[in-house]
Design goal:
Helix content: over 70%
CATH class: Mainly Alpha
CATH superfamily: MFS general substrate transporter like domains
Number of domains: 1
Strand content: under 5%
Strand order of the largest sheet: 1-2
Order of helices and strands: HHHHHHHHHHHHHHEEHHHHH
CATH topology: Growth Hormone, Chain: A
Number of strands: 2
Number of helices: 19
Oligomer: single chain
Length: 446
């Protein structure tokens, strides 16, 4: 019997090196989102660097929104240009380098540092981190066999959550240390995110497969624009792709608002410090890991579409619970228990439970939508289609953060603005229900 050549696979049995390395790529940017955008640096920016001023919360919202706007404007073209040059790993490496550099510089964000400078570093790292996802997603069908795309996607999400869990444990440990370095746990969020980007992209850049192109073929803006126009036209002609991309746009908008401002809301509402916020992120990430690994198994039973629908339902339920929970109420009902020691009130534990439901639902939704995209897109245009996938995920993602910032400026609270996420999630859910199987020949071949 002839043994398969290195790099070949049968879809069953042991994982290949490239497959295992690909499952780590999502862990390259998840620590950044966990530490900087969600649980540690964002509340630090709002409560310490900005001294709790509403203007600081608004500036953070505008920085997050601006990164979404830039991604929306550049991701489709960049994906198409990358496709024109065939090889994708150089683009992945460049995205990782910018993410690591900008995130690492956040160490110097101390009280008195110009807020605009810190916000710009967050903006720059946020844009590059999204490009890591785009190019890594484009390499999914290159790294793995078709019958394992759902499994690899779920594993990647689970491993990314495990990486987020690990860095939060480091923050928790640092929070218990006596040190003369001011705000050490908060400031370490950036350098830890930078280290994760380097360590988790390294294996795939070293041993993972890349697409092979024609000898001497280089990226071309002209070919990229032509490919982008063709991709847009082709996607619009196909009802499954058209409806799926619209559903992806609204669902992603809703999730972006919830994850960008959930920890900020907790910090402002309950007065949580880096220790409690890291613990909050730890609990959320544990459920994200379970959801990612569970989603990999459920994908085979439910299918990617039903898995995504289930995830969106869980996120909507959790979001309603978060919005209705504050310093005196649990899910809208007064508890009669005043805030005291951290995590000693039922409303705080209810907030944690709601976040756990959101994290589980997000794991299902993210893994399911990525598998749907890899299935619906033509095999020879995956970078362009995942550029389009990133585009619709960010096309209006800046609207939610900008609305939160505007509401905060007008009302002095971000709570009403987070409710906007429910409308986005509901529209995405209804659209996804209309998605059906792709036409024969449209899906990527094995």
């Amino acid at each position: 019997m002839t043994r398969p050549a290195r790099g070949e696979g049968t879809g069953a049995g042991r994982f290949r090196r490239g497959e295992l390395a690909w499952t780590l790529t999502e862990a390259a940017n998840e620590p950044f989102f966990n530490l900087v955008i969600r649980y540690v640096f964002a509340p630090y920016f709002a409560t310490t660097l900005a001294a709790g001023a509403t203007s600081g919360t608004s500036l953070w919202a505008y920085a997050v929104g601006a990164s979404g706007l830039v991604i929306a404007l550049t991701a489709p073209l960049l994906g198409a240009v990358a496709d024109s040059g065939a090889r994708l790993k150089p683009w992945l490496a460049a995205s990782g380098a910018v993410t690591a550099g900008a995130a690492g510089l956040l160490w110097f964000g101390v009280p008195g540092t110009p807020l605009l400078l810190v916000a710009f570093l967050v903006f720059l790292a946020g844009v590059a981190a999204e490009f890591i996802s785009m190019f890594a997603n484009s390499l999914l069908a290159v790294a793995g066999s078709r019958d394992r795309l759902g499994l690899l996607s779920g594993l990647a999400f689970g491993f990314s959550q495990a990486a987020g869990l690990l860095v939060l444990l480091v923050i928790l440990w640092l929070s218990g240390q006596e040190t003369a370095i001011p705000h050490l746990p908060d400031r370490m969020a950036g350098p830890l995110a930078a280290a994760a980007a380097i360590l988790c992209l390294g294996p795939y850049l070293l041993v993972g497969p890349d697409r092979a192109g024609a000898p001497g073929q280089r990226p071309s803006v002209g070919r990229g624009l032509a490919q982008l126009r063709a991709t847009l036209a082709e996607a619009w002609r196909e009802p499954p792709l058209r409806t799926f991309l619209l559903a992806r746009m609204f669902a992603s908008d809703g999730m972006a608002v919830v994850f960008a401002f959930g920890a900020v809301l907790a910090g402002l509402t309950f007065g949580w410090t880096a220790r409690e916020l890291a613990l909050f992120g730890f609990v959320i990430t544990v459920f994200g890991v379970a959801g990612g690994l569970g989603g990999a198994l459920l994908d085979r039973r439910l299918g990617a579409r039903r898995l995504t629908l289930l995830g969106l339902l869980l996120i909507m339920l959790g979001t309603v619970s978060v919005v209705l929970t504050d310093a005196t109420r649990l899910f809208g009902i007064a508890t009669g228990v005043a805030l005291g020691a951290p995590l000693a009130s039922p409303q705080e534990w209810g907030f944690l439970a709601a976040g756990a439901g959101i994290a589980t639902g997000a794991a299902f939704a993210v893994a399911g939508m990525r598998t749907l995209m890899a299935t619906l897109a033509p095999a020879d245009q995956l970078a362009a289609y995942f550029g389009l996938y990133s585009f619709v995920g960010k096309a209006t993602a800046f609207v939610g953060p900008f609305l939160v910032g505007l509401v905060a400026d007008l009302t002095g609270s971000i709570r009403p603005g987070i409710g906007v996420a429910l409308a986005f999630l509901a529209i995405g859910f209804l659209l996804l229900r209309q998605v059906r199987s792709p036409k024969p020949g449209l899906a990527a071949p094995a």
